[in-house]
Model the fold of this input.
Amino acid sequence: MGGPIAGLFRWLNDVHGLNFSVFTDAYDAHRFLIGLRTTIGLSLSCMVFSIILGLLGAWLLSGPSRLARAAVRFYVQAFRNTPPLVQLVFFYFAIGSLLSGAREPLIGGYGWAVISFSLLAGAFNVEIFRSGVEAVPPTMVEAAQGLGFSRLQTYRYVLAPLGLRICLPALTNNLVNLVKTTTLAYAIGVPELLYAASQIWSEVLNVREMMYVLLATYIALVAILVWIMERWERALRIPGYTP
Amino acid sequence: MTHLSVLCKPRRLPAIRAPLAWPGLPVGVALAFVASVAWAQAGAAVRPGPIEAILRWGPLIFGGFLFNVLTSVLSMTVGTALGAPLGLLLIAPGRLPRGISWAVTQFFRNAPWLVLLFYVMFLLPFELHVGGVTIPLPDWAKAVLGLSLPVAANVAEIVRGALQSIPEPQWSAAAGLAFGRLQTIRLIILPQAIRRMLPPWMNLYAILTMATTLISIVGIQDGLTITRAAISSDARPEMMLPLYLFLLLLFFVYCYPIARATLALERRLLVRG
Amino acid sequence: MRDVEKSFGAVPVLRGVSLTVHRGETVCIIGPSGSGKSTLLRCINGLVPITAGSITVAGREVNDPKLDPLALRRDVGIVFQQYNLFPHRTALQNIMMAPVHVLGQDRASVETRARALLAKVRLTDKADGFPGELSGGQQQRVAIARALAMNPKVMLFDEVTAALDPETKKEVLVTIQELAGEGMTCILVTHEMGFARRVADQVFFTDGGVLVEEGPPEQVLDAPREARTRDFLDKIL
Done:
């Protein structure tokens, strides 16, 4: 690896004995980047699925079916009040072994991580979207109904856009937590960032350096996510209206 | 048009609806658990079934779970002790202490818990020399410390939020009576703010309790470690479902009441302001 | 509207109200607060389902279980006390939303009509303003235009001037008066006795969930027969 950055880190290694191998060694850099890509991919898929789950749950909670409401409540409370790590190993080992039998597993570690974290974050999203929609003044619903909007139209054109603006900060918070939670996939051997880093430090024996790289990377990921969400929040701002 | 009756419903909903808590929920969880036991039992006609497995391993798993609870209590104590002063610094008058405490808080709030745990486990020595005294740092103590770091940052945010939620006139009134800043906080602001800190603090405790299972990843024996050991020692994959569910149920039974109490407290605060 | 009854739970709000409004008429419903006026109005377009009795609006039976309430609401426009404009849409978009999404009309023709309606309520220059940027009276006139955009047969006004100051009140009342002059059927719940006297064809006085007195404004407002009507008028005048 060349370039001034690699040069700097090589100097750090030679003079101070700080071995940032991800910047100086092509193989380590490659492994680390794969980990980074896995973490980002995992985070993005879980975000999408958890938001879909959240919308679906909030929709069902405001719906007419008692059974559906009870099912959503059960789902939300079950996932919010049990350890995410145990949920993950439960899915990966217990449910995974049920589905696969002796042959090739149907869903791999990455797949189970997506399912498990999506369900977890989705449970929180249900609550977030529900409270967002409930914070929209009931007079808005009345106005929409007075204009002949159906329930779906009221949701789509009035409740969802207004509720989203109300719950965006809480959603940001939950998505940040989701990114942090993807580290748990380490426990089932998904080659995400933490896993990649641990492979590197166990071979190169540069635990301290890798820890700093790892922490800085996660802080950067979270910072980027928060920045995007805040920009979105600003783009949605309406003159003369505070949600 | 089957949803007609619903059309008119949202109007009459009060602004704060009953929370998502559902009294029948624990019953539902228990039923799901029993069903899984029955299912595994049915598939285990010859060898001892899951009921025997739970009877045999249950006490051990429960012991491990108690270790999780102990860890959570210790981490919460250390985290609160570290986080409360950090929270005070967040609203300190000086720019420098405010800036530093802000950076520290943001860092520990946004770093993944597991990475922080790894950091402390790997990079803290197994004993500390302070002066001439040697303090041993066993793994469990490091784990407690590792978990207490993100807790401290979150406690700091809770303290800051609650202190700042006390309306400005209270601060001015205290200043008008010639109270010093710390006196104001201690005598006037804190007594009012503590009620507001309690719900998020309890919520944080529940999150921490669930996060204590992370210590199994760094090789400390907790409820999850023992559950996995039980499964592998029996070499019985069909026992996974009931045993993991048993562990999940233990956490649920512990954390769900905390969540309910948190909600109840929050609502009381909303009503009384 | 015959023998309409409505209870919220065990609390009766309307206890057998019967009244008739003819096409093109403007009527005012007056009465003390809590007398069920607003509920009565909301029953007419099915926002509040009635417990007993029957309401016929433009040939539709309101509590017919087979009735599509959405179709009913397309024929009956309603304007609220608190304007209830959608804060995330501009004035023009507020007016266009329902015709485009509910009636599925062509966007371009709806926009032409919406701009014409804005001109009619004298708010041409506020088309791109958000509700939060408009005054109360302006918001209320947009709300009227929004309801008119559906080409309703009947317009309901629920204390539309109660939240406005006297100055802006006038703007809104003038708009309604013009509408009544054009032959729109208007039903108003109001405390504006002067307006009722000038514009209404009939005045209904309700109290305690029943219709106490009805007739032309000269009679109900100036020479009430019922003691309860007299009491009420004495108190507010």
Remarks:
- Chain A touches chain B through 54 residues (CB under 8 Å).
- Chain A has one domain: 34-236.
- Chain A has ten helices and no strands.
- The CA atoms of residues 110 and 190 of chain A lie 6 Å apart.
